[in-house]
Amino acid sequence: MNLGFMGKYAVEIKTQDKNDAHHISLYSKMLDKVPQIREKGKSMSVIEIGCGRGGGCYVMKNYFDICDITAVDLSSANIKLASKFVPDVEFISCDAIEFTTEKKFDIVLNLESSHRYSSRLSFFKKAALMMKEDACFLFGDMIRKTELEEVEKMFTQSGLKIIEVETINEGVVNSIEKNSRKQYPLATRFPFLFPRRIHSFFVTIHSQAYKRLKSKDVLYNLYLLKKL
């Protein structure tokens, strides 16, 4: 679902979700940046771009009582699985850059996805068009330290302003260190048996992504943005 978060932030995890506590914590930490979301979640509309297999939608629905959820992912296989996992969500298979909608949302959410897009700038401009006037854009991703200034300039170019930014490398690294051994025991115990691309895809403790996050050559940033 995501790399997860383990740190000072705490959320009460339901018994049936204990194995995914670190994943849920990351989404919850991000969503809690929206003012009064715990009280007003039921009345909010959300679109998640890059929804994967529906983990974020599950958190929004079951931990924040959000009912009006639209979710987009490039992979039709992901959309098929997500539709079964989280009913009553409008799932759409489409490229993030090409996706358009006339509907405006209270929250636009994008987590661990934009670094794979053909153009972050084009995506940010699309995200701004989907937002109501007082909407929130929740954006979280890994950003090379050398690219940070450029990425943050793209927000302004897209008509967005940073309300809050938080770097959470420590909590993400803790999650990788604790959970990759459990989730991918063979790959972490016998790294030489698996090609580099496998370690990279799953972000094990032997991956370059993990090493760069730990050294902070790559920043894991969570942003709360609004329209200018």
Explain this structure to me?
This protein is globular. Strands 3-2-1-4-5-7-6 form a 7-stranded mixed β-sheet, sandwiched between helices. The chain has helices at about 20-30, 35-40, 55-65, 75-85, 120-130, 150-155, 170-185, 185-190, 195-200, 210-215; strands spanning about 45-50, 70-75, 90-95, 105-110, 130-145, 160-165, 220-225. It is built from 10 helices and 7 strands. The protein has a single domain (about 15-165, about 220-225), classed as Rossmann fold. It is about 40% helix and about 25% strand. It starts with 20 loop residues before the first helix and ends with a strand. Helix 1 (about 20-30) packs across helix 3 and helix 5 (about 120-130) runs parallel beside helix 6 (about 150-155). The model has no long low-confidence stretch (mean pLDDT about 95). By secondary structure, the chain is an alpha/beta fold.
What's the structural domain tally?
1
Query: Outline, from the CA principal axes?
Result: globular
**CATH class division:** Alpha Beta
Q: Would you identify the regions where 5 or more consecutive residues have pLDDT less than 50?
A: none
Question: What is the CATH architecture term?
Answer: 3-Layer(aba) Sandwich
Distance separating the two termini: 31 Å
* Structural class estimated from helices and strands: alpha/beta
Portion in beta strands: 15-25%
| Distinct helical segment count | 10
- CA-atom Rg in angstroms: 17 Å
Oligomeric status:
single chain
Q: Order of strands in the sheet with the most strands?
A: 3-2-1-4-5-7-6
* Secondary structure tally: strands: 7
